[in-house]
Design a protein that fits this description.
single chain, 445 residues, mainly beta, five-stranded mixed sheet, four-stranded antiparallel sheet, elongated
């Protein structure tokens, strides 16, 4: 009986264990909300410093292996010549994101470079990233893009220090930028009191720099831009200061303001408005001085002269009374160059006077086009060559003898914006051009 009872209990226990035993669990469900970015083309390329890689970087981005249907974005992180991070964002709007492409422009540093692409969700959280690499090689003869200049901007003013350093101001609120390698790489000059829309920068052989900012005033540096002084004493209310500035070889500074024309004979320490013979509200541009300290200027669209250091002015009447001037330049030989933009009796083009504005000879004829398109401007002499803009061609013109004129063309299209906007020539004849939409270019002869 006892054995029968024991057997019954064991049998009951076995049946109970079998009845309570669970079926084995299946495979776990796949994880969800997994963002993924993959580099599918463009890695490992090689190109010259400053160039945009020939093959776009191509990426595939997915959420749980499929199209991202909600808003998301991709950040592209690169580095400038000072190892500072630069970030561009590719937004996706309402989603439907799966393929992304990016044009990677190398900075100016030779050797390996890296770019990280970061995938963000709709809240801006970083979900995944992938890194691409490229090799930047040294430039040789020809045109090249400058590295490490901020994108989507251009230069509106250049100047050159006695050391060979080039300074520039950008068409945006920023520090000045400098280059010590003939325009190949650029760095912010963070010695100014802040980031501004710089209007004009002018340097002197004494390592001085004048810098103007509209509605702020003129800053002066006596050490190549390492420290600055604000020099506004005597100028009108700053709301009327436009940032215009002109400097003559005789050391005079001029600025055209909303309240008229002001002059300084002591590097901006004081400004005065005692200039007889001028209409204070007409234009005033391209001030130049001759070896005898005569100062010439375009006032309105006419040529004016001062033999009293800028205190008294009179019109130069050797030109037609209807002539309009587009530029004025005086070289080291006291030869006076002017551009004629309007007028009767003198056709469009460039004229020179070698007898202190007594007589004029035409030396360059503008391309046939409308009056505006024939305008010449921005003439300088640098390293024994003369440069000026011929607006019709939208390019810089170079000549050494005024018999042969060579267009200077950066390798960009003229269909959108001006191919060249400002220029400067380094001590070693490297030409630096700022284009309106394509960034900064430099030429190695």
């Amino acid at each position: 009986m006892k054995n029968s009872l024991l057997y019954t209990c064991l049998l009951f226990a076995v049946v109970f264990f079998i009845a309570c035993k669970k079926e084995p669990a299946g495979p776990p469900p796949p994880p969800t909300n997994i963002y993924k970015i993959e580099l599918i083309a463009g890695d490992g390329q090689s190109d010259t410093t400053g160039n945009t890689l020939k093959t776009q970087l191509a990426y595939k981005v997915t959420l749980d292996g499929d199209t991202i249907s909600s808003p998301a974005s991709v950040l592209f992180e690169t580095y400038d010549c000072d190892n500072q991070k630069q970030v561009e964002e590719y937004g996706t709007g309402n989603g439907q994101l799966i393929n992304v492409a990016y044009n990677w422009r190398l900075n100016g540093i030779q050797g390996p470079q890296y770019l990280k692409a970061v995938l963000l969700d709709s809240l801006g959280n970083r979900k995944d990233s992938v890194t691409a690499s490229a090799t930047a090689v040294a430039p040789a003869h020809g045109w090249y893009s400058s590295g490490c200049m901020p994108l989507t901007t251009f230069c509106i003013t250049f100047c050159k220090l006695p050391s060979g350093r080039i300074l520039t101001g950008l068409y945006r609120e920023d520090y000045p930028y400098y280059s010590d390698d003939e325009g190949a790489t650029w760095h912010p000059l963070a010695t100014t009191p802040g980031k501004y829309h710089i209007t004009k920068m002018i340097s002197t052989p004494q390592n001085e720099v004048y810098l103007t900012i509209a509605n702020i005033g003129m800053f002066y540096s006596d050490n190549g831009g390492q420290s600055w002084q604000l020099r506004n004493t005597g100028l009108p209310a700053l709301s009327g200061f436009w940032g215009n500035l002109q400097y003559t070889k005789s050391g005079k500074l001029f600025t055209l303001t909303q309240d008229g024309i002001y002059m300084s004979a002591n590097k901006g320490v004081n400004w005065q408005q005692e200039m007889n013979g001028l209409n204070y509200y007409a234009g005033f541009s391209d001030a130049c001085s001759m070896s005898d300290e005569t100062i010439l200027v375009i006032h309105g669209t006419r040529l004016y002269r001062s033999t009293t250091g800028g205190l008294n002015w009179s019109e130069v009447y050797t030109l037609s009374s209807t002539v309009g001037l587009s530029f004025l330049f005086v070289d080291d030989n006291d030869d006076i160059y002017i551009g004629i933009s309007t007028g009767l009796g003198m056709s469009y083009g460039m004229y020179v006077s070698k007898d202190k504005a007594q007589t004029w000879t035409k030396i360059y004829t503008s391309s046939p086009a409308s009056g505006y398109d024939q305008t010449l401007s921005e003439m300088t002499k640098q390293n024994a060559a003369y440069y000026f803009y011929s607006t019709n061609e939208q390019v810089l013109i170079k000549t050494t003898d005024f018999n042969t004129f060579t267009p200077v063309n950066p390798p960009v299209s003229a269909n959108n914006g001006r191919r060249s906007f400002r220029y400067i020539v380094t001590d070693n004849n490297h030409l630096i051009l700022s284009t309106e939409w394509y960034g900064l270019y430099y030429y190695i002869p």
